[in-house]
Amino acid sequence: MAVVHDDIGRRRFLSQAVMGFGLLFGLGTLALRFAQFLVPAPRPKQVQAVLIGTEGQVPDGDAVPMAIGTHKLLVLRTSEGVTAFSRRCTDLGCLVSWSKERQQFLCPCHRGVFDKEGTNIAGPPPRPLDRYAVVKRGDQLYVTIEAT
Amino acid sequence: MVQLAGAAEVEAGEREQPRSSWIDYIQKDLPEHLEWWPYTLGAIPLMLFGLLVISGLLLVFYYVPSPEKAYESVEQITYGVYLGWFVRGVHKLSVDLMILFLLFHVIRVFLTRAYRSPGELKWVTGSLGLFVTFGLGFTGYSLVFDNVSYWGMTVVTNMLGTLPVIGTPLLYLLRGGEEVSGATLLRLYDLHTKLLPVLLVALVGGHILAVRLLGFAEVPGSRGVHSFYPEHTLKMGMIAAGFLVLIVNLVMIFPPTLGPPANTQEVAADVSPPWYFSAAYMWITLLPGPLALWSLLGGAALFVAYPFVDRALSERGWPMAWVNAAVAAAVVLGFVALMVLDVRM
Amino acid sequence: MSEDTAAGEPSAAGNGTLNFHRYMIGGLCLVLFLALTGVGYIEIEERRGGGLRPFISAENKQCIDCHMAKDVSVGGINDWRVSRHAPKGIGCVECHRAEQGDADAYMHEGTLIATLVTPKDCMRCHEKEAKEFMRSHHAKGAQFTGSLDNFLGNVVEGPEIVTTGCAGCHGSIVKVMEKGKLHPATWPNSGIGRVNPDGSKGTCAACHARHSFSIAQARQPESCGRCHMGPDHPQIEAYYESKHGVMFTANKEKMKLADPSEKWHPGKDYLYPTCATCHMSATTTQEVTHDVGDRITWTLRPVISTRLENYEARRKAMRQVCSSCHSEQIVERFFTQMDQGITLYNDKFGKPAKAAMDKLLAMKKITPTPYDEKIDWVFYELWHHEGRRARHGLSKVAPDFVHWQGFYEVAKTFYTKFLPLVRELSPAVADELLAKEGHQWMQRGMSKEEIAQMLEFYEKEMQGKRGGG
Q1: Are residues C376 and C438 in the same domain?
Q2: Predicted complex: ipTM over 0.85
Q3: Does residue B251 sit at the A interface (CB-CB below 8 Å)?
Q4: Which of the four pLDDT bands, split at 50, 70 and 90, describes residue C400?
Q5: CB < 8 Å to A30, chain C
Q6: Residue C260: which domain range?
């Protein structure tokens, strides 16, 4: 006749449960601290208007490449006026370039194509090129970017 | 072997094939004495080594091994990076504790003569592992590139350079040139983060394997057995948890600090190596150059080969238990005396 | 009670131990969790507080606990807590401990200490700075016992104010009474040239105020301006008038005043100079010097300014600092302007006035006792106050101090006060006084052309209105 040994089983379960919780909290928090150590906190960003030139300095039909801080732009005269496009391809982030002959933005990584208004017309890019806000003060053009 | 009635019946009668699980591969019956406190000392350095590897891997994300940036990066870690002081503190404290408990472990093994035949390999792998650990300690604190680091690496490589035949090539090898330079720091960094840890893992692995395969020396008074899993592992787990708590608390109360950056033009008056090199440092200070170095090397060789010395002497009837006790006492007292002398001076 | 135990399974008794171990692991890990929460808390507190926690040794803990309990100098201790000494474990005992035989040592609650912490004590860790300081002019600050100024303070005014007045900047000679107590007529005092009982001169706390000893505070112009101010040497007023001072005031938050000297180079790490920048601090090619005279060419102190010993090297060092931000063109022209201005003062006013006073003394027209006649005071202020103001204005490019508060007043005193007094005593000496070309305008007046030009100016530019109309 088998004797039911609930006591032993229950005690073991309880001690294993306590151990499990302890390990979870203790080692889990340790792992969390190590992870906090590794992942640097994002730095607060400030919006800044940066002077990029005068209206007259933007040639017709050609895009002027610029690098402001870590941002890379192409400034082009479009139907809406002078526009600052982000060179970050909306597909996977490669750098787009302007082709004067084709009057298009081309991305070499996966052959994405944007027209001269920045609209995506061929290849994998899912949406048009991002733009930076352009502010005009008199003859001067300013681009608003986020900087740390 | 404690057996109860039911089990015997099962064994004698229909032999049920026990379910083979991964536990069976690591399972072993351990003699009773392994539960006694002095015999658990070996597991502690192992656990601390694991902590050192993890904290070291984390530090590597921020440390820069170039002379211009090294000190600054350590300063950044200690005072700038989020919880940097904590990770560095854990790393530093674990080194001190690991070496301390390694020494305790060595003393225990020495006093109980656990290296006796057929267990010499355990001692050899273990003693080499001890030296590699010292090497890791030295290369580690050299990376901070403060005054102690710079002058420490200069003096130690100089000393090694005085050895005949291999001295000069060894000096060039460690320094990456004739003088202490950026190449030196990079090499010590590579030693500390790549070569020596791999070597230590191999030696410790060999050590544990040797213990596993060659078994334990007889200990009077140890009669029963207990299983590796879950008894021994749980006990070791408990000790490990205790050490974690101890280390985290100590790091909170005594966070790591930083000495002044290396002044390559002038040796500061207060440069002295960490406590575990204190005795060797005083030994070199007190004895004339070649004598000090050769006696250290000779002592180290004797240390590694000790099981064979023990065997030879016991065959001649020497009471090795007493000899070891006397030798251990003398060495420990000498070590402590030299350390006290270093502090005083 | 029979149990089924497979090989390797523990017995009931063993189970109890196992359970215990599991509870222990769980419990210890929960304690670990609490400890790690504490770690996180400390990190956040430190980020908020912006400082590191002090490391307090057992010895220092005794000092701190008792002082806090008795509410004595609690402010000083809290100041220390935010110092850079505190996290390094440099506390009370490390600075205040004394040796047997020290003049000002006394037993205090079981430890031999001294109230005064002198450059000799600071030198234990800051040897270079202390040595440089002690060979500087600052360290000689208290050595004016034989001077006219000392006569002025001690005799003409009164000895009771010498410690708080003159010695407040220059430094007193500290006297020790019994039991290590310091004489009230000589201490408290943190004058820069204080003569300490242990023979050292000066106190680092004159600039690096205790107990925070902050480098950011020492670099603030106000730290120097505590003494380098006033009618007789308005360095800080002139600095704040100058463009350097204006830029500094406007951009104080960008100054990174607390950065270590290896990371605090003008032109690179910060752009607006303070007193420290030019006179002491490190540049990309020079190290910090605590000898404030290292880069000074002229002494603007005496009646007649002279160039210091080895001035070429000092001028070179100063020019290198200027070059950290300015072009060679600007640097060269500034020094030309300054040197010319100082030479003007020397040649037109300083030397003639001194020569006149020497002659009058030789002729026994004035007594040798200083400050007993009006002319003594007029001459004194001419060179000691107005003349110095002019010269300091020149060195700091402070226009108002060069002109209105400087040369204007020099000229006014020279012509309207000093000259008449000299003439009263000896017309011959007065004539010699005006011998130089620069004084000829008094005899000559303006030429017809000059008058015509000036009238034309007022007609054209000022619409006929004359000054005062």
Answers
A1: yes
A2: no
A3: no
A4: very high
A5: 32, 36
A6: 228-329
